[in-house]
Amino acid sequence: MRIAVCDDDIREQEQFEKALKEWDPTGSAEKFYNGAALLTAARTSPAFDVVFLDICMPGENGIAIAEELHKISPDTAVVFVTFSRDYAVDAFSVYAIHYIIKPVTAEDIDEVFRRLAKNRTKHGRRITLISGKDRYTVFMEQIYLLESNNHTVNVSLADGRRIRVNMSFCELEKNLSEDFLRLNRGISVNMDCISQLTADVCILQNGIELPVSVRRRAAIRRTYDNYVFAKLSQKKREFKEGET
Question: Three-state SS for 4?
Fold first, then answer.
């Protein structure tokens, strides 16, 4: 398992290492003192399994670093570490699996890996995409957009890849999770990737704007609102569990 800790304070780095050793005497973590170094290392293989990231570092914003890290390595779990709960809501907006108030303890690390195991079990569903003679197996949450193209489907992934799949839109849509929302005929999006949804247009987090079906706009709005409410409720429950 590849673990990283990013904190500009050497004392906090030492405290983290102590806690990690208490949790697992054989455990080790790669240490980084700024976000730039962390992101550079994240581009190497294998990907980090989990990153413990300080939110407030000189000249850097941990939330922004986490957003860049997610683009580089969507499967890397992020744990924010800070002295304050002031950034908790922002932290969960980039899908952090935990939010730890310093100093980090062995109990905190145990909770992180408990959540990581639970999260992978719940969100580890994969799908195999066939494009010509090539086969791509991806996690469902890596897909953010599907667009019908004659008798094929263009599947856009979070890492920038675009795969042309040899099957009909309806056939592929049947294999998707409930996280996907059909906006119009031949257009479906991952609701986790939506930045804004109005009556006429859906704006994704990468800036892409997509038309919303006029006939189905009420049903689309209702489905999305219910999804967001369920997600927020889940985050609140997890946050409260972390406080106990």
Answer: strand
